[in-house]
Amino acid sequence: MPSKITLALGTALAGIALCCFIESGFAQDAVVASIAESDTDDADESDGRDDKSHRPRSRPSDNLVSANSRFVISSSESLSLGVTSVTETAEMEGVVVSGTWFDTYPVPYPALPPVEGTRINAGKKTSFVKPEEFPTFAGNDFREVMATTPGILVSEEPQSPIINFGYRGLNSQRSETMQVLEDGVSLKNEQFGFPETHYTPILDAVERIELIRAGAALQYGCQPGGALNFVMKMPRMDAPFHFTTRNVFGSYGYYRNYTEVDGTVGPFGYYLYYDHRQQDGFREANSDYELNNGSSRFVWDVTKDSQFILTLDFYDENHGEPGGMRRREEVNPPDSVFVEDGFTQTSRFFDRFRLERYYAILEYQKFFSERTELEIKAFGGYLSRWSKRQRGGAFGTLPSGGAAETNSIQLREAWTEGVDARVRHDYDLFNNVSTIAGGIYFYHALQDRTDERGETPDAESGMLRNLNTGETWDGAIFAENRFKFGRLSIVPGMRLEFLNQSVVEQLNVAKTSNGDPLADQSDFHFVPLFGLGLGYTLVEGQPILSAPLIAGEKGAEAKNPPALVVTGFGPPRVELYGTVSQAYRPITYGELVPTGASSVVNGNLKEGKALQFEYGVRGKPFPYLNFDVGGFYFTFTDQIGEVILPNGFTSTENVGDARYIGFEASTELDVLALINGGVPNPYGNLTLYGNVTLLDAEFTSGPNTGNIPAYAPNYQVKTGAIYSYKNTFKLALLGTLVDDEFGDDGDSFEGFIPAYNVWDLTAEFKFWKGRAGVFAGIRNVFNESYWGEVREEGIMPALPRNYYGGFEFFF
Fold it and tell me: With contact defined as beta carbons under 8 Å apart, do 636 and 658 qualify?
């Protein structure tokens, strides 16, 4: 459609023009970084990580000195570059910068920095994990990589590459209740009207995964389930060319190839990867998938304090949908497929799913001074989701009857574009340095949905039955301010969301055959969201020394560096945090205008709302130990669902409220560093980790009053051990224990998910001076028979014990 393409290009060009205007009008002198001295903990785990180490994409302005600094000069002393205002000195937590404003690393600490780039994390419960801390996985093994992160439930769908993330009892299906992001840009098929997540980045290309819990709505969007942000790798700066390739072979016909090249030539950097995955699947038929995925990232360092980043992604996958099963009971429907008879059975032999995604992000970053940073992203892309599904089947049964001779074919095409502009500024207040951060957000989406009726169970096309177009216009203004008074931080924030959604039906055979009019529905919401974060440092930690900044021309160097000053604090460090924040869940296109002839929408339909409270204590009291312990409480009101009316019609309406109360604790202990008196052990690192989420969730009003919400187990425990020796050998044993839960809000017999306990073992060994390596693993070591997902078509069994192995080369 020319109008859609024109709109997408126009938005992108407007963003580029704005970036160029700012670059030409506000070019500033670069600030020369100074050499800092850190404590002994800053050097641990730094040996030999050059093969996987990529420069991160933005500079945190408040950060503890990283143990992953690339400038290690001995086992007890590290070298880093600190960018710090003289007026901040002992007031801020420290900065790690290497070479330019943009080269930084998060710290081995149980939280993100209080201020990072253009965002404020102080007062919020945050965490991050780096895939490189684990041995190489077979593929996107998110159960394993999220093992050290509490609060995230991964509902597995092993017959496809789709990942379902749940958050503290909120529904995990297609990660609808979470904000899932790549470099701060939403990965949703369509962020508001079609908020399912079918695409997830390959872990090999991910620098770190950040989880920002209560309060994420204020800086990333509206969803109540927090924000999961994939920070992608950047080009390495130490050489013009690097090459990495991995090949993996596994059970059930699994094969994967991942190949990347990257490097930097002068001010230009590049990072390109290609990912291919395929498998036959463990079900008796129709559980295969094939995937091709790639990305190109180009970086242009215009000056030391400004850069452009262009990212181009493509993703193409198709997979079979072997259908679900059911549990055996006294009275069973005809043609039932029982899970008790084995996990390999297939109930759908013709159902298929395809996804294509093409996306682009143009980012501009600018430091006007050590106190002011600007970040602008222009983004847009195209997504196509296609499926065909045989009719005549029910939950856990084979299709039967006349309807089984036909199928339903659905195509959704979405065009999205937007601009996200943010700024952060530090300022003096009462002899402390406070920070304000905020920006504006614009988003537009257009979706065409077509539904066809195929004349055979495996038809690829058929007679058109439904055609509608959904459109979303969204604008937001958001801001947060960190008021810092010594050890106390107070962070009020707000987000003003302006959302307009519309759905227009061009064709609906079921409605017109009944004499019902086609729908033309538009809905506007203004949703103000507010939050407040509090942080208090109980133990400040050891001082980190650095030379203050020196003003000068671009590229100027300090010939007579001033005396060192205190710029931050390393371990020990312990702090309190607390947050109260609002969020909401928008109405989807399917809820705004259902396609069924017997479906109606309540005229007073409102978006769901959440109010969340978070509190806890975290820290790194010793170089070998970190922890985070806290509680949470939140309500989710006006949840949207379907109610069966006396006349047989189905009404989409606000069906009730739920409350969630819980406790979370996590810790990591490096046993070998403990034995060695708190300094890195020459025999490597042995990290014992454990985390637990205890949850009490219940519907408090509506038709499901007293029920437990879907995917809300009473407990989830993750524990295990990770050993690493320099960059030569890694071994990990990772365990996940999940209590009973339900796959539906009605707590039905069919939706019951029994408790399960699954363990994974993986190892990696590198040789030839780190240029080659082998790795292997066993997933579900003890062959646990379990399932973690229940869909409309039935129970989706998880993989039994399976194996993988592979080799990798680095140049």
Answer: yes
Contact in structure between 68 and 108 (CB atoms under 8 Å)? yes
Strand-strand pairing, 179-182 and 227-232: parallel
Helices (H), 95-207: 142-145
- The residue assigned the tokens 């050590």 is 370
Q: Report CA torsion sign: 458, 462, 464, 469.
A: positive
Rounded average pLDDT over 120-127: 92
Query: Which value, in Å, is the radius of gyration of the alpha carbons in the chain?
Result: 26
DSSP assigned state of 66: P
Give me the pLDDT at residue 90, please: 32
Cis peptide upstream of residue 572 (ω within 30 degrees of 0) = yes
b/e for 747-774, b at 16 or more Cβ within 10 A? beebbebeebebbbbbbbebeeeeeebe
Query: The tokens of 56 are what?
Result: 């991160």
- E runs forming strands in 547-680: 565-570, 573-585, 599-601, 608-622, 625-644, 650-670
Q: How far is CA 299 from CA 229, 270, 696, in A?
A: 20, 6, 47
pLDDT for 34: 32
Nearest to 414 by CA among 588, 620, 606: 588
Residues in CB range of 451: below 8 A, 6 or more apart:
408, 409, 410, 464, 465, 466, 467, 595
Q: Within 10 Å of residue 319's Cβ, how many Cβ atoms?
A: 24
CA distance 446 to 417: 9
CB 112 within 8 A of CB 128: yes
By mean pLDDT, which of 36-50, 62-76, 636-650 is the weakest?
A: 62-76
Band (223; pLDDT cuts 50, 70, 90)? confident
Residues 6+ apart with CB under 8 A from 305: 28, 29, 30, 31, 100, 101, 366, 367, 368
**Distance spanning both ends of the chain, measured CA to CA:** 44
Write down the residue that tokens 């600094």 correspond to.
Answer: 69
Q: Is 536:123 a contact under the CB 8 Å cutoff?
A: no
* 193-215 mean pLDDT: 91
DSSP assigned state of 195: -
Distance (Å, whole) CA 147 – CA 617: 21
Phi, psi at residue 650, to the nearest 5°? -110, 125
- Candidates 90, 96, 76, 108; CA nearest to 35 is 96
Q: How many CB atoms lie within 10 A of CB 581?
A: 27
Burial code of 267-302, b = ≥16 C-beta within 10 A, e = fewer? eebbbbbbbebbbebbbebbbbbebebbbebbbebe
Q: CA-CA distance, 787 to 767, in Å (whole number)?
A: 38
Nearest to 171 by CA among 121, 110, 135, 225: 225
User: What is each CA distance from 349 to 31, 407, 786, 800, in whole angstroms?
Assistant: 63, 12, 22, 21
Q: Which residue's entry shows tokens 């996200």?
A: 420
> Which pair of structure tokens corresponds to residue 144?
């394993």
The answer to whether 127 touches 211, Cβ cutoff 8 Å, is yes
Owner of token pair 């222009």:
378
pLDDT tens digits, residue range 108-120?
678 888 998 899 9
Taking the CA atoms of residue 697, residue 702, residue 703 and residue 706 in that order, the dihedral angle to the nearest 10 degrees is 30
Question: Three-state DSSP class for 22?
Answer: helix
CB–CB of 481/465 below 8 Å?
no
